[in-house]
Amino acid sequence: MGQLSRLESEPEVGEVIVSEADLQARITELGARITADYAGRPPLLVGVLKGAFMFMSDLSRAIELPVETDFMAVSSYGSATRTSGVVRIVKDLDVDLADRHVLVVEDIVDSGLTLNYLQRYLLARSPASLEVCALLVKEGQQRTAIDLRYVGFHIPPDFVVGYGLDVGERLRNLRAIHAYSGDPSGR
Ligand code: IMP
Ligand code: MG
Fold it and tell me: What's the pTM?
């Protein structure tokens, strides 16, 4: 282990759950699988803001196909850390999905309610295909059946930060996935 950066030494930043090296190695593997699976039909990558921005950046560069990228921003009603399953579209897609092979790029699946809503929303726009690539899935938390074609890591159901994931908009710029030792609902 190298020296802790100043950010990693912040008091509420806990242990590493997925290291930077493990993230990058897994993303290389996912990129190779997606490259093989989508040969001849480059997907439209749909990143879910804000949490997936860093994963989208690395995953898209691990795919050796002429992909297109777009982003959606959603906010779920509920408390800071508990989603209610009611999702508001804050930024919609810029492109038409008809006849497109859509691959949703998501940071983390907790209850699965956000993704379940998004899948139904996107399917209503008649894509040629719709699959999901989620970097993280919290074990035993899913309250709805969702079909995840690509998963980076299964992790314990504790709150995590870093690599795009935030607490109150902070700590997204940690290079690894860390446990969060503060109060996730607090400031
Ligand atoms: P779900 O609808 O319960 O699956 O929640 C999914 C969304 O909640 C994710 O896209 C994240 O934005 C957020 N989320 C869930 N767990 C965490 C976490 O441990 N840290 C940061 N954000 C999280
Ligand atoms: Mg998200």
Answer: 0.94
Domain spans, the chain: 25-155
Active-site residue, 110 included = yes
CB proximity list for 99: less than 8 A, separation 6 or greater:
126, 127, 128
Residue 93 to residue 107: CA distance in whole angstroms: 18
Largest Cα span, the chain? 49
Residues 147 and 77: their CA atoms lie apart, in Å, by 23
pLDDT tens per residue, range 119-147: 999 999 999 999 999 999 999 888 888 88
pLDDT one-digit tens code per residue, 145-183: 888 999 999 999 999 999 999 999 999 999 999 999 998
25-155 is classed in which CATH architecture? 3-Layer(aba) Sandwich (3.40)
Nearest CA owner, ligand 1 atom 11: 108
Q: Distance between CA atoms of 181 and 68, rounded to whole angstroms?
A: 37
- Quick check: 71 and 91 in contact, CB under 8 A? yes
**Ligand with an atom nearest the CA of residue 87:** 1
Q: How far is the CA of 26 from the centre of ligand 2 (A)?
A: 19
